[in-house]
Amino acid sequence: MNKIINKEHFSEKVFKLEIEAPLIARSRKAGHFVIVRVGEKGERMPLTIAGADLNKGTITLVVQEVGLSSTKLCNLEVGEYITDVVGPLGQATHIENFGTVVCAGGGVGIAPLLPIVQALKAAGNKVITVLAGRTKELIILEKEMRESSDEVIIMTDDGSYGNKGVVTVGVEEVLLREKVDKCFTIGPAVMMKFVSLLTKKYEVPTEASLNTIMVDGTGMCGACRVTVGGKTKFVCVDGPEFDAHQVDFDGMIKRMSAFKDAEKEEIKKLGSPKCEITKSQHAEDRTAPWREELRKSMKAKERTDISRVHMNELDPEYRSHNREEVNQGLTMEQAQQEAKRCLDCVNPGCITGCPVEINIPKFIKNIERGEVLEAARTLKETSALPAVCGRVCPQEKQCESKCIYVQKMNKKLLPLVT
Hints:
The protein is α/β, with parallel strands linked by helices. It contains 20 helices and 17 strands.
Protein backbone atom coordinates (compact mmCIF):
# COMPACT_ATOMS: atom_id res chain seq x y z
CA MET A 1 0.00 0.00 0.00
CA ASN A 2 1.17 3.51 -0.83
CA LYS A 3 0.53 6.47 1.46
CA ILE A 4 -0.67 9.84 0.17
CA ILE A 5 1.79 12.45 1.46
CA ASN A 6 0.29 15.56 -0.07
CA LYS A 7 -2.84 16.52 -1.99
CA GLU A 8 -3.43 19.67 -3.99
CA HIS A 9 -6.72 20.76 -5.54
CA PHE A 10 -6.00 22.21 -9.01
CA SER A 11 -9.60 22.72 -10.13
CA GLU A 12 -13.08 21.36 -9.45
CA LYS A 13 -12.22 17.83 -10.60
CA VAL A 14 -8.43 17.81 -10.98
CA PHE A 15 -6.12 16.82 -8.12
CA LYS A 16 -2.37 16.52 -7.64
CA LEU A 17 -1.33 13.61 -5.40
CA GLU A 18 2.12 13.04 -3.94
CA ILE A 19 2.49 9.36 -3.08
CA GLU A 20 5.09 7.31 -1.23
CA ALA A 21 6.78 5.03 -3.78
CA PRO A 22 10.56 5.09 -3.25
CA LEU A 23 11.44 2.28 -5.68
CA ILE A 24 9.37 3.82 -8.47
CA ALA A 25 10.77 7.29 -7.76
CA ARG A 26 14.29 5.92 -8.02
CA SER A 27 13.84 4.21 -11.40
CA ARG A 28 11.22 6.26 -13.26
CA LYS A 29 12.05 8.36 -16.32
CA ALA A 30 10.10 10.89 -18.37
CA GLY A 31 7.23 9.12 -20.14
CA HIS A 32 6.82 6.26 -17.66
CA PHE A 33 3.43 5.49 -16.10
CA VAL A 34 2.03 3.49 -13.20
CA ILE A 35 -1.05 1.31 -12.72
CA VAL A 36 -3.07 2.35 -9.66
CA ARG A 37 -5.80 0.44 -7.83
CA VAL A 38 -8.09 1.74 -5.06
CA GLY A 39 -9.63 -1.06 -2.98
CA GLU A 40 -9.12 -4.82 -3.19
CA LYS A 41 -11.72 -5.03 -5.94
CA GLY A 42 -10.80 -1.75 -7.60
CA GLU A 43 -10.29 -1.13 -11.28
CA ARG A 44 -6.71 -0.79 -12.59
CA MET A 45 -6.01 2.76 -13.79
CA PRO A 46 -2.99 3.86 -15.86
CA LEU A 47 -1.58 7.24 -14.79
CA THR A 48 1.54 8.87 -16.21
CA ILE A 49 4.09 9.94 -13.60
CA ALA A 50 4.19 13.75 -13.45
CA GLY A 51 7.23 13.99 -11.19
CA ALA A 52 9.35 12.35 -8.51
CA ASP A 53 11.29 13.38 -5.40
CA LEU A 54 14.23 11.04 -4.74
CA ASN A 55 14.93 12.51 -1.31
CA LYS A 56 11.36 11.99 -0.11
CA GLY A 57 10.86 8.78 -2.08
CA THR A 58 7.64 10.04 -3.66
CA ILE A 59 6.05 10.28 -7.08
CA THR A 60 3.48 12.81 -8.27
CA LEU A 61 0.27 11.95 -10.11
CA VAL A 62 -2.32 14.35 -11.48
CA VAL A 63 -5.80 12.83 -11.61
CA GLN A 64 -9.07 14.06 -13.07
CA GLU A 65 -12.40 12.75 -11.79
CA VAL A 66 -13.99 11.06 -14.78
CA GLY A 67 -15.51 7.73 -13.70
CA LEU A 68 -16.03 5.68 -10.58
CA SER A 69 -12.41 4.62 -10.06
CA SER A 70 -10.82 8.03 -10.59
CA THR A 71 -13.42 9.56 -8.28
CA LYS A 72 -12.57 7.04 -5.55
CA LEU A 73 -8.88 7.92 -5.94
CA CYS A 74 -9.56 11.66 -5.78
CA ASN A 75 -11.68 11.17 -2.67
CA LEU A 76 -8.69 9.82 -0.71
CA GLU A 77 -7.09 12.28 1.70
CA VAL A 78 -3.56 12.89 3.00
CA GLY A 79 -2.52 10.02 5.27
CA GLU A 80 -4.78 7.49 3.54
CA TYR A 81 -3.43 4.68 1.38
CA ILE A 82 -3.75 3.62 -2.24
CA THR A 83 -4.11 -0.17 -2.40
CA ASP A 84 -1.61 -0.72 -5.24
CA VAL A 85 0.78 1.39 -7.29
CA VAL A 86 2.74 -0.64 -9.85
CA GLY A 87 5.49 0.75 -12.07
CA PRO A 88 7.32 2.30 -13.69
CA LEU A 89 5.72 0.87 -16.84
CA GLY A 90 6.02 1.60 -20.55
CA GLN A 91 8.90 2.94 -22.60
CA ALA A 92 10.65 6.10 -21.45
CA THR A 93 10.66 9.16 -23.70
CA HIS A 94 13.60 9.33 -26.10
CA ILE A 95 15.47 12.48 -25.09
CA GLU A 96 18.28 14.13 -27.04
CA ASN A 97 19.28 17.58 -28.23
CA PHE A 98 16.90 17.96 -31.16
CA GLY A 99 17.28 21.73 -31.39
CA THR A 100 14.01 23.66 -31.08
CA VAL A 101 11.19 21.64 -29.59
CA VAL A 102 7.50 22.49 -29.20
CA CYS A 103 5.68 20.73 -26.33
CA ALA A 104 1.89 20.94 -26.57
CA GLY A 105 -0.22 19.92 -23.58
CA GLY A 106 -3.94 20.06 -22.97
CA GLY A 107 -5.93 19.68 -19.74
CA VAL A 108 -4.52 17.03 -17.39
CA GLY A 109 -2.15 16.06 -20.22
CA ILE A 110 -0.05 19.03 -19.07
CA ALA A 111 1.05 17.02 -16.02
CA PRO A 112 2.83 14.12 -17.81
CA LEU A 113 4.28 16.66 -20.25
CA LEU A 114 6.19 18.37 -17.41
CA PRO A 115 8.95 15.73 -16.93
CA ILE A 116 9.44 15.62 -20.71
CA VAL A 117 9.84 19.40 -20.84
CA GLN A 118 12.33 19.22 -17.96
CA ALA A 119 14.34 16.44 -19.61
CA LEU A 120 14.40 18.19 -22.99
CA LYS A 121 15.64 21.43 -21.42
CA ALA A 122 18.33 19.55 -19.48
CA ALA A 123 19.49 18.01 -22.79
CA GLY A 124 20.13 21.48 -24.23
CA ASN A 125 17.02 22.01 -26.35
CA LYS A 126 15.21 25.28 -26.88
CA VAL A 127 11.81 24.40 -25.43
CA ILE A 128 8.65 26.27 -26.38
CA THR A 129 5.66 25.02 -24.39
CA VAL A 130 2.05 25.53 -25.41
CA LEU A 131 -0.50 24.92 -22.64
CA ALA A 132 -4.21 24.73 -23.40
CA GLY A 133 -7.45 24.40 -21.45
CA ARG A 134 -11.10 25.32 -21.72
CA THR A 135 -10.74 27.95 -18.97
CA LYS A 136 -8.04 29.54 -16.81
CA GLU A 137 -8.76 27.06 -13.99
CA LEU A 138 -7.71 24.15 -16.22
CA ILE A 139 -4.24 25.55 -16.92
CA ILE A 140 -2.10 23.62 -14.44
CA LEU A 141 1.59 23.56 -13.49
CA GLU A 142 2.27 26.84 -15.29
CA LYS A 143 4.99 27.91 -12.83
CA GLU A 144 6.86 24.62 -13.16
CA MET A 145 6.59 24.75 -16.96
CA ARG A 146 8.01 28.27 -17.09
CA GLU A 147 11.00 27.18 -15.01
CA SER A 148 12.01 24.62 -17.67
CA SER A 149 10.85 26.35 -20.87
CA ASP A 150 12.34 29.14 -22.96
CA GLU A 151 8.84 30.32 -23.72
CA VAL A 152 5.33 29.41 -22.57
CA ILE A 153 2.22 30.16 -24.64
CA ILE A 154 -1.16 29.90 -22.88
CA MET A 155 -4.33 29.15 -24.84
CA THR A 156 -7.87 29.03 -23.40
CA ASP A 157 -11.07 28.27 -25.28
CA ASP A 158 -12.95 31.15 -23.63
CA GLY A 159 -10.07 33.63 -23.58
CA SER A 160 -10.19 33.87 -19.77
CA TYR A 161 -6.36 33.58 -19.62
CA GLY A 162 -3.59 33.97 -22.16
CA ASN A 163 -4.68 33.88 -25.78
CA LYS A 164 -8.14 32.86 -26.94
CA GLY A 165 -8.18 29.72 -29.04
CA VAL A 166 -7.29 26.04 -29.11
CA VAL A 167 -3.86 24.49 -28.74
CA THR A 168 -3.20 24.25 -32.49
CA VAL A 169 -3.47 28.05 -32.81
CA GLY A 170 -0.57 28.43 -30.36
CA VAL A 171 1.48 25.67 -32.01
CA GLU A 172 1.01 27.12 -35.50
CA GLU A 173 2.07 30.55 -34.24
CA VAL A 174 5.47 29.04 -33.44
CA LEU A 175 5.69 26.99 -36.66
CA LEU A 176 5.09 30.10 -38.76
CA ARG A 177 7.82 32.16 -37.15
CA GLU A 178 10.72 29.72 -36.74
CA LYS A 179 12.10 26.30 -37.62
CA VAL A 180 10.95 23.60 -35.22
CA ASP A 181 12.86 20.31 -35.10
CA LYS A 182 10.54 18.20 -32.94
CA CYS A 183 7.12 18.29 -31.31
CA PHE A 184 5.72 16.40 -28.32
CA THR A 185 2.00 16.40 -27.54
CA ILE A 186 -0.05 15.01 -24.66
CA GLY A 187 -3.73 15.58 -23.98
CA PRO A 188 -7.17 14.45 -25.11
CA ALA A 189 -7.03 12.14 -28.13
CA VAL A 190 -8.84 14.57 -30.39
CA MET A 191 -6.40 17.34 -29.43
CA MET A 192 -3.39 15.17 -30.25
CA LYS A 193 -5.00 14.21 -33.56
CA PHE A 194 -5.23 17.83 -34.70
CA VAL A 195 -1.76 18.73 -33.41
CA SER A 196 -0.49 15.77 -35.45
CA LEU A 197 -2.32 16.91 -38.59
CA LEU A 198 -0.87 20.39 -38.16
CA THR A 199 2.74 19.31 -37.63
CA LYS A 200 2.48 16.85 -40.53
CA LYS A 201 1.57 19.78 -42.77
CA TYR A 202 4.75 21.55 -41.64
CA GLU A 203 6.81 18.31 -41.77
CA VAL A 204 7.76 18.44 -38.09
CA PRO A 205 8.41 15.01 -36.48
CA THR A 206 5.91 14.56 -33.65
CA GLU A 207 5.55 12.20 -30.70
CA ALA A 208 2.14 11.66 -29.07
CA SER A 209 1.68 10.04 -25.66
CA LEU A 210 -1.46 7.90 -25.97
CA ASN A 211 -3.92 7.42 -23.12
CA THR A 212 -5.91 4.36 -24.14
CA ILE A 213 -7.95 1.98 -21.97
CA MET A 214 -5.67 -0.45 -20.12
CA VAL A 215 -6.19 -3.45 -17.87
CA ASP A 216 -3.00 -5.28 -16.91
CA GLY A 217 -0.40 -2.82 -18.27
CA THR A 218 2.06 -5.57 -19.26
CA GLY A 219 0.95 -6.49 -22.79
CA MET A 220 -1.11 -9.58 -21.94
CA CYS A 221 -4.69 -8.42 -22.44
CA GLY A 222 -4.55 -6.29 -25.59
CA ALA A 223 -7.11 -3.78 -24.31
CA CYS A 224 -4.79 -0.87 -25.11
CA ARG A 225 -4.07 -1.86 -28.70
CA VAL A 226 -3.81 0.85 -31.33
CA THR A 227 -2.92 0.91 -35.01
CA VAL A 228 0.38 2.65 -35.75
CA GLY A 229 1.67 2.65 -39.31
CA GLY A 230 -0.84 -0.03 -40.22
CA LYS A 231 0.40 -2.39 -37.49
CA THR A 232 -1.11 -3.27 -34.11
CA LYS A 233 0.82 -1.91 -31.15
CA PHE A 234 0.20 -2.18 -27.41
CA VAL A 235 0.35 1.21 -25.69
CA CYS A 236 1.40 -0.30 -22.35
CA VAL A 237 4.59 -2.01 -23.59
CA ASP A 238 5.34 -0.46 -27.00
CA GLY A 239 4.42 3.06 -25.86
CA PRO A 240 2.87 5.14 -24.51
CA GLU A 241 4.63 7.42 -27.04
CA PHE A 242 4.41 6.86 -30.78
CA ASP A 243 5.06 8.69 -34.04
CA ALA A 244 1.89 10.79 -34.09
CA HIS A 245 1.83 10.92 -37.89
CA GLN A 246 1.47 7.12 -37.98
CA VAL A 247 -1.26 6.77 -35.30
CA ASP A 248 -4.81 5.89 -36.33
CA PHE A 249 -6.44 8.43 -34.01
CA ASP A 250 -9.95 7.84 -35.37
CA GLY A 251 -9.80 4.14 -34.51
CA MET A 252 -8.34 4.93 -31.10
CA ILE A 253 -11.08 7.49 -30.33
CA LYS A 254 -13.80 4.99 -31.27
CA ARG A 255 -12.34 2.34 -28.93
CA MET A 256 -12.04 4.83 -26.08
CA SER A 257 -15.67 5.92 -26.40
CA ALA A 258 -17.02 2.37 -26.41
CA PHE A 259 -17.58 2.31 -22.65
CA LYS A 260 -18.92 5.81 -21.99
CA ASP A 261 -22.38 4.51 -21.11
CA ALA A 262 -20.91 1.88 -18.80
CA GLU A 263 -18.83 4.57 -17.07
CA LYS A 264 -21.96 6.65 -16.44
CA GLU A 265 -23.70 3.67 -14.88
CA GLU A 266 -20.66 2.81 -12.72
CA ILE A 267 -20.39 6.30 -11.24
CA LYS A 268 -23.94 5.91 -9.92
CA LYS A 269 -22.67 3.03 -7.76
CA LEU A 270 -20.29 5.25 -5.78
CA GLY A 271 -21.05 4.59 -2.13
CA SER A 272 -23.73 1.99 -2.86
CA PRO A 273 -23.69 -1.42 -1.12
CA LYS A 274 -22.98 -3.19 -4.41
CA CYS A 275 -22.36 -6.64 -2.96
CA GLU A 276 -25.74 -6.69 -1.22
CA ILE A 277 -27.44 -5.58 -4.43
CA THR A 278 -25.68 -8.39 -6.32
CA LYS A 279 -26.74 -11.01 -3.78
CA SER A 280 -30.31 -9.77 -3.88
CA GLN A 281 -30.32 -9.89 -7.67
CA HIS A 282 -28.92 -13.44 -7.59
CA ALA A 283 -31.71 -14.57 -5.26
CA GLU A 284 -34.29 -13.10 -7.64
CA ASP A 285 -32.67 -14.64 -10.74
CA ARG A 286 -32.34 -18.02 -9.04
CA THR A 287 -36.11 -18.32 -8.62
CA ALA A 288 -36.74 -17.87 -12.34
CA PRO A 289 -38.78 -20.85 -13.63
CA TRP A 290 -36.09 -21.95 -16.08
CA ARG A 291 -33.47 -22.04 -13.31
CA GLU A 292 -35.72 -24.10 -11.06
CA GLU A 293 -36.42 -26.48 -13.93
CA LEU A 294 -32.70 -26.97 -14.54
CA ARG A 295 -32.04 -27.72 -10.86
CA LYS A 296 -34.83 -30.32 -10.84
CA SER A 297 -33.52 -31.98 -13.99
CA MET A 298 -30.55 -33.51 -12.13
CA LYS A 299 -29.76 -34.43 -8.55
CA ALA A 300 -26.86 -32.65 -6.87
CA LYS A 301 -24.96 -35.95 -6.54
CA GLU A 302 -25.31 -36.56 -10.27
CA ARG A 303 -23.84 -33.14 -10.98
CA THR A 304 -20.85 -33.55 -8.68
CA ASP A 305 -20.10 -36.98 -10.18
CA ILE A 306 -19.61 -35.50 -13.65
CA SER A 307 -15.93 -35.54 -14.64
CA ARG A 308 -14.38 -32.22 -15.45
CA VAL A 309 -14.05 -31.39 -19.14
CA HIS A 310 -10.49 -30.38 -19.90
CA MET A 311 -10.08 -27.39 -22.17
CA ASN A 312 -7.83 -27.97 -25.19
CA GLU A 313 -4.63 -25.94 -25.32
CA LEU A 314 -2.04 -25.24 -27.98
CA ASP A 315 1.16 -27.23 -27.79
CA PRO A 316 3.68 -25.37 -25.55
CA GLU A 317 6.45 -25.54 -28.15
CA TYR A 318 4.17 -24.10 -30.85
CA ARG A 319 2.70 -21.29 -28.75
CA SER A 320 6.10 -20.17 -27.50
CA HIS A 321 6.78 -18.79 -30.98
CA ASN A 322 3.57 -16.84 -31.61
CA ARG A 323 0.82 -14.78 -29.98
CA GLU A 324 -2.08 -17.11 -30.64
CA GLU A 325 -4.57 -17.91 -27.89
CA VAL A 326 -3.27 -20.58 -25.50
CA ASN A 327 -6.73 -21.92 -24.64
CA GLN A 328 -8.69 -23.18 -27.62
CA GLY A 329 -11.98 -23.10 -25.76
CA LEU A 330 -14.77 -25.64 -25.42
CA THR A 331 -17.24 -26.84 -27.99
CA MET A 332 -20.88 -26.06 -27.21
CA GLU A 333 -21.43 -29.67 -26.23
CA GLN A 334 -18.42 -29.62 -23.89
CA ALA A 335 -19.50 -26.31 -22.37
CA GLN A 336 -23.01 -27.55 -21.64
CA GLN A 337 -21.65 -30.75 -20.10
CA GLU A 338 -19.29 -28.76 -17.90
CA ALA A 339 -22.06 -26.32 -16.93
CA LYS A 340 -24.06 -29.19 -15.48
CA ARG A 341 -21.46 -29.45 -12.71
CA CYS A 342 -22.61 -26.11 -11.25
CA LEU A 343 -24.93 -26.68 -8.27
CA ASP A 344 -26.54 -23.21 -8.55
CA CYS A 345 -25.95 -22.59 -4.83
CA VAL A 346 -28.29 -20.50 -2.69
CA ASN A 347 -25.32 -18.48 -1.39
CA PRO A 348 -22.72 -18.67 -4.17
CA GLY A 349 -19.23 -17.80 -2.97
CA CYS A 350 -18.08 -17.34 -6.55
CA ILE A 351 -19.95 -14.04 -6.87
CA THR A 352 -18.33 -12.47 -3.81
CA GLY A 353 -14.97 -13.87 -4.91
CA CYS A 354 -15.20 -12.09 -8.27
CA PRO A 355 -13.67 -8.56 -8.26
CA VAL A 356 -16.52 -7.23 -10.41
CA GLU A 357 -19.14 -9.53 -8.84
CA ILE A 358 -20.35 -11.20 -12.02
CA ASN A 359 -23.43 -13.36 -11.49
CA ILE A 360 -21.44 -16.49 -12.32
CA PRO A 361 -24.22 -19.07 -11.61
CA LYS A 362 -26.60 -17.22 -13.94
CA PHE A 363 -23.91 -17.18 -16.64
CA ILE A 364 -23.19 -20.91 -16.27
CA LYS A 365 -26.85 -21.92 -16.17
CA ASN A 366 -27.52 -19.97 -19.37
CA ILE A 367 -24.73 -22.00 -20.97
CA GLU A 368 -26.31 -25.21 -19.67
CA ARG A 369 -29.61 -24.41 -21.37
CA GLY A 370 -27.84 -23.30 -24.58
CA GLU A 371 -28.59 -19.57 -24.30
CA VAL A 372 -25.16 -18.22 -25.25
CA LEU A 373 -26.31 -14.64 -25.89
CA GLU A 374 -28.03 -14.49 -22.50
CA ALA A 375 -24.81 -15.77 -20.91
CA ALA A 376 -22.88 -13.00 -22.66
CA ARG A 377 -25.38 -10.40 -21.45
CA THR A 378 -24.87 -11.63 -17.90
CA LEU A 379 -21.15 -10.92 -18.18
CA LYS A 380 -21.76 -7.46 -19.61
CA GLU A 381 -24.04 -6.54 -16.70
CA THR A 382 -21.03 -5.94 -14.45
CA SER A 383 -17.94 -6.15 -16.67
CA ALA A 384 -17.22 -3.77 -19.53
CA LEU A 385 -14.29 -5.91 -20.75
CA PRO A 386 -15.23 -9.56 -20.09
CA ALA A 387 -12.96 -11.04 -22.78
CA VAL A 388 -9.98 -9.15 -21.40
CA CYS A 389 -10.81 -10.03 -17.79
CA GLY A 390 -11.06 -13.70 -18.70
CA ARG A 391 -7.49 -13.63 -20.01
CA VAL A 392 -5.78 -11.88 -17.12
CA CYS A 393 -7.89 -12.74 -14.06
CA PRO A 394 -6.21 -14.99 -11.42
CA GLN A 395 -9.48 -16.88 -10.98
CA GLU A 396 -7.92 -19.62 -8.84
CA LYS A 397 -7.41 -17.00 -6.12
CA GLN A 398 -10.79 -15.33 -6.56
CA CYS A 399 -14.06 -16.95 -7.69
CA GLU A 400 -12.64 -20.49 -7.77
CA SER A 401 -11.29 -20.29 -4.25
CA LYS A 402 -14.79 -19.48 -2.93
CA CYS A 403 -16.64 -22.26 -4.77
CA ILE A 404 -18.18 -25.15 -2.85
CA TYR A 405 -16.19 -27.58 -5.03
CA VAL A 406 -12.98 -26.24 -3.47
CA GLN A 407 -14.32 -25.23 -0.06
CA LYS A 408 -16.03 -28.51 0.85
CA MET A 409 -15.39 -31.14 -1.80
CA ASN A 410 -11.71 -30.53 -2.63
CA LYS A 411 -12.47 -30.87 -6.34
CA LYS A 412 -11.30 -28.94 -9.38
CA LEU A 413 -13.38 -26.10 -10.74
CA LEU A 414 -15.30 -25.47 -13.91
CA PRO A 415 -13.21 -24.14 -16.80
CA LEU A 416 -16.29 -22.11 -17.75
CA VAL A 417 -15.51 -19.84 -14.80
CA THR A 418 -12.08 -19.24 -16.28
